[in-house]
């Protein structure tokens, strides 16, 4: 299934282990240049039915495959992605915009390898709850069946890995649907997986949603046993509503508006780099990025100065340029949202860096001070390269402000006193709290949100167990 990455496609869907092309396609463009980088197949409801049927047909044999063989398949997938890492990284950059180097597409592919290998080391064995002369109680963790993966455009291959690898590790089969903004890398990813896996274990369909809304059809499909969705809270609510009549299992990783609290004992120059990557990794287009920063009044001005000085030295440009550290915003929809929020904030606060939109989809890295809760850039998830910095005096008050709002994905505390930071962390109403860092997720630690930031967790043993059912056997 090798494809010329310089050609415009069409890239096939993979259904039942076979490439499926369509007469109708849609163009995928490079956000850095606007040029068409490929064409994706316009999948239909009929293609979805075929994919679900293929996954259901493959399920019995894959579920009964020895556990060690499924573990080996995860490692084989990792090896396959390592072999094609540069090809996939280039494709991610072309359709998503992030740079090849630094914390960009090659970094994303490194995460694909790490998560795939780590998932291969996990297992969900039978547990003996009671074993006596009179009785034996066992708890089994059988696979659920067909898992649907619906992924966003910000980390297209890495998030697909987070969804698909634990599903197949536990004996499920998969139907994947990528974002219409970034379908090409996921189509290629699944094609490569099918060089390792039996036919029908992992299938992929895609559409630009102008004909059949495949996302909505997946959410309400009776042949799907679990939905794993990463995306906005608004869309996640729609997924949940569609899935409810079928009692479909769900893991939803939704929006966040992560707060960081900087205590007065920090060295502003020492934390500037950490703050930068916490807020602006992937141009801020990351669910668990730092989205609002509360800084104690004693160090506020010094932190602003050090942070702004660091930001001003970061090169931005086409992701294919090896000198680029930051790229464009990934699509016009997101660019317009960031521009709206920054324009509103600039009227109320002080622009420290950036502020005005650049050419095309390039938006300068923006820091704005003088804002507070109640301002749109503080209250809304910007999901882009703009960070509000809010001055505070009282610790209890700032914790209340950090906890305000409907979401609770992540948070951070920045301090020279780690033990004090730990105590503050316990008071933050979010799923993960980092100390002197932010957003550094890892495959061995559960990750999920509170409140409107989602349902369930991913990663680690808890994340793996979410792809299984519980059956108790009493004898």
Structure report:
This protein has two domains: 13-254 and 453-474, Aldehyde Dehydrogenase, Chain A, domain 1 (3-Layer(aba) Sandwich), CATH 3.40.605; 259-444, Aldehyde Dehydrogenase, Chain A, domain 2, CATH 3.40.309. 37% of the residues lie in helices and 20% in strands. Helix 4 runs parallel beside helix 5 (156-169) and helix 9 crosses helix 10 (300-311). Strand 3 (25-29) and strand 4 (36-41) form a beta hairpin. With 475 residues, the chain is α/β, with parallel strands linked by helices. It is an enzyme of class 1 (oxidoreductase). Its EC number is 1.2.1.39.
Secondary-structure blueprint:
Layout: E1 13-15, E2 18-20, E3 25-29, E4 36-41, H1 45-63, H2 67-83, H3 85-96, H4 105-121, E5 127-131, E6 136-140, E7 146-150, H5 156-169, E8 173-177, H6 183-193, E9 202-204, H7 214-219, E10 226-230, H8 233-243, E11 249-253, E12 259-262, H9 268-280, E13 292-296, H10 300-311, H11 332-348, E14 350-353, E15 366-369, H12 376-379, E16 386-392, H13 395-403, E17 407-408, E18 410-414, H14 418-425, E19 432-435, E20 450-451, E21 454-455, H15 460-465, E22 471-474
Parallel strand pairs: 7-8, 7-10, 8-9, 10-11, 12-13, 12-18, 13-16, 15-16, 18-19
Antiparallel strand pairs: 1-2, 3-4, 5-6, 6-22, 11-21, 14-15, 17-20
InterPro entries: Ald_DH/histidinol_DH (IPR016161), Ald_DH_C (IPR016163), Ald_DH_CS_CYS (IPR016160), Ald_DH_CS_GLU (IPR029510), Ald_DH_N (IPR016162), Aldehyde_DH_dom (IPR015590), LUC3-like (IPR044086)
Family: Belongs to the aldehyde dehydrogenase family.
EC number: 1.2.1.39
């Amino acid at each position: 299934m090798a494809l010329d990455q310089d050609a415009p496609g069409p890239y096939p869907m993979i259904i039942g282990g076979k490439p499926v092309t369509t007469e109708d396609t849609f163009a995928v463009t490079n956000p850095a240049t606007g040029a068409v980088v490929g064409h994706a197949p316009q999948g239909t409801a009929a293609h979805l039915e075929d994919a679900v049927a293929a996954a259901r047909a493959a399920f019995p044999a894959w579920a009964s495959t020895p556990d060690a063989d499924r573990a080996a398949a995860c490692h084989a997938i990792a090896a396959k992605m390592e072999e094609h890492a540069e090809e996939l990284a280039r494709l991610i950059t072309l359709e998503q915009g992030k740079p090849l180097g630094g914390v960009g597409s090659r970094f994303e592919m490194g995460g694909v390898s790490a998560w795939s290998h780590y998932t291969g080391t996990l297992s969900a064995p039978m547990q003996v709850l009671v074993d006596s002369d009179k009785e034996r109680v066992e708890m089994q963790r059988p696979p659920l069946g067909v898992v649907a993966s619906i992924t966003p455009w910000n980390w297209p291959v890495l998030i697909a890995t987070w969804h698909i690898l634990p599903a197949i590790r536990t004996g499920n089969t998969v139907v994947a649907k990528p974002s219409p903004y970034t379908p090409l890398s996921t189509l290629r990813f699944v094609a490569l997986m099918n060089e390792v896996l039996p036919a029908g274990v992992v299938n992929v369909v895609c559409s630009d949603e102008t004909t059949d809304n495949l996302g909505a059809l997946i959410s309400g499909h009776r042949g799907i046993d679990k939905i794993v969705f990463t995306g906005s809270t608004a869309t996640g609510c729609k997924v949940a509503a569609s899935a409810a009549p079928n009692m479909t299992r769900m893991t939803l990783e939704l929006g966040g508006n992560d707060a960081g609290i900087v205590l007065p004992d920090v060295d502003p120059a020492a934390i500037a780099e950490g703050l930068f990557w916490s807020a602006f990794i992937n141009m801020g287009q990351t669910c668990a990025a730092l989205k609002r920063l509360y800084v104690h009044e004693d160090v506020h001005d010094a932190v602003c100065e050090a942070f702004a000085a660091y930001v001003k030295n970061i090169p931005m440009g086409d992701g294919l340029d090896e000198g680029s550290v930051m790229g464009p915003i990934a699509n016009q929809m997101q660019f317009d949202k960031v521009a709206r929020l920054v324009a509103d904030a600039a009227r109320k606060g002080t622009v420290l860096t950036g502020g005005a939109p650049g050419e095309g989809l390039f938006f300068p890295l923006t820091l704005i001070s003088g804002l507070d809760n109640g301002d749109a850039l503080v209250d809304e998830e910007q999901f882009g390269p703009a960070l509000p910095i809010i001055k505070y005096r009282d610790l209890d008050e700032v914790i209340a402000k950090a906890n305000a709002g409907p979401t609770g994905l992540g948070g951070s505390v920045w301090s020279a006193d780690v033990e004090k930071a730990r105590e503050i962390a316990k008071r933050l109403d979010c799923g993960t709290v980092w100390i002197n860092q932010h957003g550094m997720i890892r495959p061995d630690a559960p990750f999920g949100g509170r409140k409107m930031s989602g349902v369930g967790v991913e990663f680690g043993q808890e994340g793996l167990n979410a792809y299984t059912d519980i059956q108790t056997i009493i004898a």
